[in-house]
Specification:
Strand order of the largest sheet: 4-3-5
Distance between the termini: 38 Å
Order of helices and strands: EEEEHHEHEEEHHEEHHHEHHHHHH
Low-confidence stretches: none
Helix content: 40-55%
Radius of gyration: 26 Å
Length: 452
């Protein structure tokens, strides 16, 4: 099921008490307390309420833009925003919070401004409008507009244009750094791969030396690796074709830059760009390919580790799968929730790969080998491709609809065509790439024909 990566209101925000490059202290405070402090530092409680509300919307949106785009963290800093008005907005530790401002913030702290058609919080630039002026909102300029009877939204439109909207009641939750925690590499798949593919293709419009990725499909193939290597070369990073933490945040920094996400006039992130193919976590009641993959991994791990719960392989996340996930989490020192979030999935994937890698040569006997732990995609050349072709060749002798393939170890058009045909015949997503579900289905068919 596709999911849209929408901003979450952070429970806390980390503020650097000085300009970005200074050695000043960082403080982490509740987000609502931060907004109340900035509003009490930036505007006057005696202003008309509609002027106060318009200013507070701008303060919230500005801060959320910094958090959502990871503006400072993508540059290697360990904070979300500064209290320097040269760069951000005023924050004065331990200052008095005005009562009426506190009430308004409590009511609208999870509302923010967007451009119509975009999902990221607007970089709602503002200035006081007397000693300094800017393209954005004039703080003092909101007062006469409110006195004329304009609503907060009409005041905001006056400064930011008629194409803005207000997102109301956004979810509140813990926000963590976007880096997935492990490097992305050839053969990996998932939402994070698709995010990188989308961002690299947009950067390539400004840096045409970076080759375009033909399919934004969440599968880290050779074209994605080539784009990553060229990006690393251009920006003086280690050229290993893997998206480690440094590469991840450098990509994010330049993606934000070419899109102008931290500018008042921004290209914006559309709903289509923010849509990812799978939920960011799966839990009881989930179904489909992600669940089938999870069950396959857990069943293999449990086969070699008797301390874990076996799990039946279906496409439904029921009580037995919950029990298997909980036992896995307990065994590996994770929070026992029965929910597969990013941390749990990374651990399952790592343990599966290590388990398969530790098996002795010839462990499979006359059966097909276990899924190697990475996607097989066109252009690859390795022993796993050779194994795949061996399995498909036998299957093709028994299922005429599947074209025969030569066993060469190279994943060319012939192999891709056979894979696509197999996927279509067995009601699998037709991608031409071989992930755990396709591999397991091919392996089952090979074992059936080979051992009958």
């Amino acid at each position: 099921m596709a999911e849209i990566l929408l901003p979450t209101i952070p429970e806390t925000i980390t503020v650097h008490l000085g300009p970005p490059n200074s050695t000043a202290q960082n403080v982490t405070v509740p987000f609502t307390q931060y907004v109340k402090n900035v509003a009490s530092s930036e505007i006057y409680p005696t202003w008309p309420e509609n002027a106060l509300r318009a200013n507070i919307y701008a303060i919230i949106s500005f801060a959320l833009n910094r958090v959502y785009t990871e503006y400072y963290r993508s540059r290697g800093y360990d904070f979300d925003i500064t209290n320097s008005t040269q760069f951000d907005q005023a924050f004065k530790p331990d200052r008095e919070i005005f009562e009426n401002i506190g009430y308004i913030v409590d009511e609208i702290f999870n509302d923010y401004i967007v451009r119509q058609g975009s999902v990221q919080p607007l970089f709602a630039a503002f200035c006081n409008g007397t000693t300094s002026t800017c393209q954005g909102l004039s703080q003092w300029g909101t007062v006469p507009l409110a006195e004329q009877g304009l609503t907060p939204f009409e005041i905001l439109q006056n400064f930011y244009g008629n194409d803005i909207g207000i997102v109301n009641d956004a979810p509140v939750g813990f926000t963590e750094e976007s880096y997935p925690g492990v490097p992305l590499k050839l053969g990996d798949s998932g939402n994070n791969v698709q995010i990188i593919q989308t961002e690299l293709n947009r950067i390539a419009r400004n840096y045409p030396a970076i080759p375009k990725i033909a399919q934004i499909n969440g599968i880290f193939g050779l074209d994605t690796e080539a784009a990553v290597r060229k990006f690393q070369e251009i920006f003086n990073l280690t050229q290993n074709g893997q998206v480690d933490k440094a590469t991840w945040y450098k990509i994010k920094q330049y993606y934000n830059g070419v899109k102008g996400l931290s500018d008042l006039v921004s290209e914006g992130i559309s709903v289509a760009e923010a849509t990812i193919p799978f939920d960011t976590q799966i839990s009881e009641g989930s179904s489909g390919i992600p669940v089938t993959t999870l069950q396959y991994y857990l069943s293999i791990i449990a086969y070699f580790n008797g301390a874990l719960e076996p799990v039946p392989r279906s496409n439904y996340f029921g009580p037995e799968t919950v029990a298997a996930v909980e036992r896995f989490q307990e065994f590996y020192g994770l929070d026992v929730t029965g929910v597969v979030d990013t941390q749990t999935w990374n651990t399952i994937s790592r343990v599966y790969t290590e388990t398969v890698a530790s098996l002795p040569s010839g462990y499979e006997g006359s059966n097909a080998k276990l899924y190697p732990g990475f996607f097989l995609t066109p252009g690859m050349r390795n022993d796993s491709v050779r194994d795949l072709q061996t399995y498909l060749s036998l299957i093709a002798q028994n299922i005429p609809e599947i074209p025969n393939v030569s066993v060469t170890g190279f994943y060319g058009d012939q192999t891709e065509n056979a894979v696509r045909t197999f996927q279509e015949l067995f009601s699998l997503p037709v991608s031409g790439a071989v992930g755990p579900t396709t591999w397991a289905t091919i392996a089952n068919q090979y074992d059936f024909f080979n051992n009958r």
